[in-house]
Amino acid sequence: MTPRPSPEAPRTVGELRASGHEQVSVREEIRRNLISVMRSGGPRFEGIVGFDDTVLPQICNAILSRHDILLLGLRGQAKTRIIRALPSLLDEWTPTL
Length: 97
Known about the structure:
Elements: H1 13-19, H2 26-40, H3 55-64, H4 79-85
């Protein structure tokens, strides 16, 4: 099911501008949301087991530093699972035209 904006959400470009919405890149949105997850102490990446001391801190450092990420490794090293966990750091919805 697709998330729906609240009924109070802006419906026109003028309302969107008046609301003070600030467009940010996906990279910055993921970084901002990772910082808030880290401050709250919640789990950063759900469903990834065994990489808490090695890979996941490096992924977090790359996101915080705004670096590109290239995942290399053999089969079974959670590369796909890490990539599938990244969208959990995106906002629920964003206005589009």
